[in-house]
Structure formats: C-alpha cells, structure tokens
Design brief:
By secondary structure, the protein is α+β, with helices and mostly antiparallel strands. The chain has seven helices and seven strands, in the order βαβαβαβββαβααα. It has one domain: Peptide Methionine Sulfoxide Reductase, Chain A, CATH 3.30.1060. The strands form three sheets. Strands 3-2-7 form a three-stranded antiparallel β-sheet. It has a two-stranded antiparallel ribbon with strand order 1-6.
Length: 187
Amino acid sequence: MIAGGCFWGVQAVFQHTKGVTKAVSGYAGGDKKDADYDRVSSGRTGHAEAVQITYDPKQISYGTILQIFFSVAHNPTELDRQGPDHGPQYRTEIFPQNEEQAAVAKAYVAQLDAAKAFKGKIVTKTGTMKAAFYPAEAYHQDYATLHPNNPYIVFNDAPKVENLKRMFPDAFRDKPVLVADAAKSGH
C-alpha cells in the first residue's frame, strides 16, 4: 500500500504497470469509522488517500514498484501535499505489509536521499506497518480511465502515465487493469 497524493493518479500509474494484477483506491492510516471520502477530506482522520497494489512477483519486484512510485507517481519531497492538493490525507507514505517490505522501503529512501536524487529531502513515511486498508467509494475506482477529459486528470494524472511509458517502457502496459474488470470476473 502506498500513498502519494490524490489516489486517482497513483492508481492510474499502477494500473498501467505490467505485473500489477490489481490497484485499488482507498484509505489507510486511520480507523474504519472514518474511511469515507467526506471524512478523509477533512484532513483530521489520520487516513491518507492510498492505493493497494496486488502484483505478481514473477513479473515485477517490490523494488521496481517503489522505483515507479518515486519516479513518476508523485513527488516525495512535498510534505502533506501533492500538486494542487493540500492536507495530511495527501501525504507521501509507504505502508509496508511485512518486515522485508519495511526494510526495502527504508533502504530505498535512504539510498535516494544519499544520492541527492531530489532537490529537497524525501519526506515519505515508511514506518506504519500493516495498516488496515479500506477501499474508496466505487466512483473513485478507475477514475482516470473513466474520466480522461476531466481537467484534473488531464493536468495532473495523465502526465504521470505518460512518464511511466517514457521512463519505464518495459514495465508499461497500454491497457490498464481496472477494478471494474476484477469485480466482473469475481476477483
């Protein structure tokens, strides 16, 4: 699970990533009772807009997912904001699901900082282990695919997918894996 601003764009990037079998928009870091868009939008629930990524480790590694997350899905130097969106619900955070993921995430952030890969210091949190994930409302799923002409998508999220295609051509897939398709097939 990762959080990097509005979940629409993060979901879109990973829906276009080979080896990802499912990317679901939702909420992580807070309580179940607060896991709805109106409450999370207040910035007072502890939740971040997050994406739960299911992937085939034979096709893509956790390390490559992190590389894509830091390279094209968001700006890891912006504290509690991404682009036009402000508040702790838009923070940059990795929610490791086990000790191995936690170690890889911490080491990768340290490596990027040591290499001065970004102009500012990386503010991505990595220490929230096994946070619960609550899928977002249906209208938030597959949003970038269903609303490609929405100005927010055009200006903020479509460029992320284009950067994935340009920077990771071997990991890019043109046809996104959609939540709606998984629901139809019973997965």
